[in-house]
Design brief:
alpha/beta, 5 strands, Rossmann fold, 9 helices, Methyltransferase, Methionine Synthase (B12-binding Domains), Chain A, domain 1
Length: 219
């Protein structure tokens, strides 16, 4: 098999929504000595961008985004990131994003999909998980010198925590340094503006466009 065929296999595996096939194709690439960053860029994230485009065009639905994003995230974390660290290679990034689901909310499917699509677009993602305390968003943003903080709320009862994140970034002197993006089922553009946020996206594809707009990155 040609090395180019390896990347084609990875893309096709992701588009088949078969986690085992994605793992097998990725391992094959590593066994052939392929650069793990190239595997991410020309294989996994290329496939996610295709899924995102098909979602945008109405060919795919939310279940397809979930089915594609979950194995890709797992494989990057378990297989490729350790190899990247071992080889001391770097991946170019469009910016650093701290991402999490707010305190009091344990829903993370939407957050995970957005994180995967941001990663596929070229952003460096620092995921602090679900039910994340407000101070953790701020602390992590300081640690990584974040360009964007993204906070998801899937419950209407957890919406006020997004407002707390705005207040906390102001108190920490970060408000002029980071863009604040909010999302989740009950979140609206109006709510985001009301609490002093910078950006809102109703789905993962729009989240990529919104983040790029906020950072002045041409799409």
């Amino acid at each position: 098999m040609s090395h180019e065929g390896v990347y084609e296999d990875i893309v096709n595996a992701v588009l088949s929504f078969d986690s085992d096939k994605v793992t097998e194709a990725t391992k094959k690439g590593l066994d052939l000595g392929e650069d793990p960053v190239k595997i991410i860029e020309d294989g996994l994230t290329k496939a996610l961008r295709i899924v995102g485009k098909k979602f945008e065009d109405g060919e795919f639905f939310l279940m397809h985004l979930v089915a594609a994003a979950e194995p890709v995230q797992r494989i990057i974390k378990d297989l490729l990131e350790p190899e990247i660290l071992r080889r001391k290679v770097q991946r170019k990034t469009l910016g650093r994003i701290v991402l999490g689901t707010v305190a009091g909310d344990i829903h993370d499917i939407g957050k995970n999909i957005v994180g995967a699509m941001w990663f596929a677009a070229g952003f460096e993602i620092h995921d602090i998980g679900k039910d994340a305390p407000t101070e953790q968003f701020v602390t992590r943003a300081k640690e990584v010198d974040a360009d964007v903080v993204g906070a998801s709320a899937l419950l209407s009862t957890s919406l006020p925590m997004q407002k707390e994140i705005v207040k906390a970034t102001i108190a920490a002197g970060l408000r002029d340094k980071v863009k604040l993006m909010f999302g989740g089922a009950p979140v609206t553009a109006e709510w985001t503006k009301e609490i002093g946020g910078d950006g809102y996206a109703e789905d993962a594809v729009e989240a990529v466009k919104a983040a790029k707009r906020l950072l002045g990155i041409e799409t």
